[in-house]
Specification:
With 325 residues, the protein is an alpha/beta fold. The protein has two domains: 197 residues, FAD/NAD(P)-binding domain, CATH 3.50.50; 109 residues, FAD/NAD(P)-binding domain (3-Layer(bba) Sandwich), CATH 3.50.50. It has six helices and 19 strands.
Length: 325
């Protein structure tokens, strides 16, 4: 069944994860007409549960999204499964065109499209991503505590990851791979009892439904149960390029984000962003909070615009001239 859409909305939210849905919730509760468009491909889909989220720790990602959608709908917001093909300026607002050819207008946009993890091209990494190939100790660390963990160094953050995972397991090994640590970092690893293995990793070895080790360039297989990598994280911001809003390299060197201020307001009037599209490190709780903040700011911006228009109309009806004539 095709969702019945209005011609225009106060706000169209592109992306229906934690950030987008919480932004939509704030707007719908402010009696704004809101449409959330979501492609249904969340970054955290492979994960068994969302962690570090107060009162919802361990909730499966799909369940959290379903609850959020129900809450937004409960306040009159609309949720549409679909892909956005194009976003274009239309007067003071925007036209959002879907892949199926339908189009809607919006006075404001909230973009919460998240990011893409660009994984190292090592056989076995992509197949186990989000299960026993991980990157975040706060998202998945407790679940792999006390296991044999291997960090494949692909960037400057590898030693930092190793030190964090060492808090969770006494059996941590760093594989130098393409980013061997410097002298100071080698000393840090040694001081914490973290082994350092030189050479490249050629394969993550899988047996049945689990990781059993890593194969090095010389053919040696070292046993490991969990692998940690550092993906390059790139914001899904391509839709905004036509409006003059492009991604920028993050100061950490770990990826690209859409720049915005602390409230999610971008350099393009009328567009806000929230979640991983502008904050690489935001977990679900932080993304949801950012969405709520952006939603509140959008509502306030619309209130100001409506008030200005109301004042102008009031003056016209009263025959009032600011110059006194």
């Amino acid at each position: 069944m095709t969702e019945e859409l209005r011609d225009g909305y106060d706000v169209v939210v592109i992306g229906g994860g934690a950030a987008g849905l919480n932004g939509a919730l704030m707007l719908a509760r402010s009696r704004r007409s809101v449409l959330v468009i979501d492609a249904g491909a969340p970054r955290n889909a492979p994960a068994d549960g969302v962690h570090g989220l107060l009162a919802r720790d361990g909730t499966p990602p799909a369940e959290l999204v379903a609850r959020g959608q129900a809450e937004v709908r409960g306040y009159g917001g609309q949720i549409l499964r679909g892909e956005v093909r194009e976003v274009a300026r239309a007067g003071a607002g925007f036209t959002v065109t879907l892949a199926d050819g339908r189009a809607v207008s919006a006075l404001r946009l909230l973009v919460a499209t998240g990011l893409v993890d660009e994984l190292p091209e090592i056989p076995g990494v992509r197949e186990r991503w989000g299960r026993d190939v991980l990157h975040c100790p706060y998202c998945h660390g407790w679940e792999v505590r006390d296991r044999a963990i291997g960090i494949i160094a692909t960037g400057p953050n590898a030693v930092h990851q190793a030190l964090l995972f060492r808090q969770l397991s006494a059996d941590v090994t760093v594989f130098a791979h393409t980013a061997p640590p410097g002298a100071e970092q080698v000393e840090q690893l040694a001081a914490r009892g973290i082994a350092l293995v030189p050479g490249s990793v050629e394969e993550v070895v899988i047996a049945g439904d689990r990781i059993t080790g890593v194969r090095l360039g010389d053919g040696t297989v070292l046993p490991r149960e969990v692998i940690v990598v550092g993906p390059r994280m790139v914001a899904r911001g391509g839709l905004l390029a036509g409006l003059g809003l492009v991604t920028e390299e993050h100061p950490s060197g770990m990826g690209e984000t859409v720049p915005a201020d602390a409230f999610g307001r971008t350099e393009v009037p009328g567009i806000w962003v929230a979640g991983n599209v502008t904050d690489l490190s935001a977990q679900v709780g932080a993304a949801a909070a950012a969405g709520a903040m952006a939603g509140a700011q959008i509502n306030a911006d619309l209130v100001l615009a409506e008030t200005r228009a109301a004042v102008e109309l009031h003056r016209a009806r009263a025959g009032f001239s600011p110059a006194g004539g």
